[in-house]
Each structure stands twice: as C-alpha cells, then as structure tokens.
What does this fold into?
Amino acid sequence: MVKHPKPLLFVLMFITMFSQPVSSVDFMFNGLNSTDVLLYDRANISSRILTLTDETSFAASRAFYISKIPTKIPNSSRVLPFSTSFFFSAPPSMNRYSFNIAFAFTTNTDNHGTNSDFSIGFSGGVVVDFNNLVSVSYHAAGYWLTSDFDGDQSFEELNLNNGENYQLWIDYADSVLNVTIFPIGIKRPKHPLLNVPFNLSDVFEDEMYVGFISSSTGYQSGRILAWSFSNSNFRLSESLITSGLLSFTIPLFTIPRFRYISKDRLLPE
It folds into this structure.
C-alpha cells in the first residue's frame, strides 16, 4: 500500500492560512448613534445627527469611529485602499470660510494630533494635509459638470455655508487620492474635484482612527448626517439614503401669485 506524504497537506494548509485577505472594514450609518462614534469636546449626537461644533464655542471638536481600523497590510508598507463618503451641512452664513471641518486619519484621538495625522479639510475649498503642516493639494469647493452632448466640462463652484446638504466622496487606491463633492440629489460627477498622486505609506500606521475634526469660529455648527467607509467595497457609499434628510435651509416666505380671469375672479397660478 502506497502512503502519500503528509507534509504536502501541511504546506497546502499553511499557504491557505496566510493567503487570506486582511479583515475588511465596512460600515454605513444612515444617521449616527452614540454607539457608533467616540465623541470629544463639543461634539454631540441628537436625532441621529452628529453636530461637531456649536455656535457659542471656539474650541475644536472631534468624532471618530468607535475603534481603530487596519490601514496597512501587516508586515508591509502597502496602504489598504479605502472609500468613504458622508453627508454634511452648515448653517447659512455670509462668511463662506467660517465653516471648518476635516475628515481625518490619526493614531491618537487627543486634541494635539500625532506625527501620523492625515486629513482632508474643506470650508471655502478642499485641501489635503498631513501632519497638520504640509498642504499637498487645494481646490475651490465645487464639482465638474460634463455635457451629454459634446463631453465638454464646466466647473460649478459651491458655497458650502448656505445651509444645503452636500456629499463628499474620498477614494484612495494605488497611491492615488480622489476627492469629489457635490449637492445631494444630483448624480455623482464622473470627474473628481481632486485627483492627487500621493503615497500614504510614510504617513499611515498599521492601525488608525478615522473620523472628523472641526474647529468653530463661534458662529457656525457643522453637521454630519450620514457616513460610510469601506476598504473592500468602493460602491458601498451608493447605498447611503439621500431622501428625507434634515437641512439648515429655511424656506423664504413667498407671496401667492394669481391669474386674472375677470374683474371679480382670480385663480391661483
């Protein structure tokens, strides 16, 4: 009777065990709860809306996912790809730069940051920073419209301090960062606002916190209405619910208009 060598089975098992992908992180919050995020300073959650600052303080506020997430392949310098998207809004203001919020990766949730901070901030524009010192890229807030007729593109600039709800989309893969911002309710633009070649391997640790940082001017309160994140499914954000969202926008009073029919008869238009 011929016996097959057992080492072959052991080798196959070893290869299978160590070829498994890194545990994926996927979460989607259509409205947030205090069990979803860690809250610091003035950050709070009410009616499933995350408010990062209020209108009376000048302090920074922070909110991070409940635990650290893997951001690198173990024993490697390779950064895991990720896709995140969130809905945000700020109350109407004459000062378009008074709203200051950043989406951030950090190794430490304290208020001082670390040497491994990476953030994408937006107020009047969109800026990519790391270590709170160096701005890698900047662009005025807005989105690219592509004509269905001839494919030409035009830029639609946005004022983020008008009380409307907006969606920010951040994708990172193969050392390229894409950032897209657009009003909720329109189709996601094909062309991103920012397309930045950027290797995060020197910035990221193996595990990091991910979330939001905001500094108040004392006149603004930024809100996060929904949030998704994935390092395995770049289409997860498409499932965020865009209908029925609260907004800072207050409808203006309008005077009814009538259509003249006769001397004694008017019909609403």
In short: Residues 11 and 66 are 38 Å apart (CA to CA).
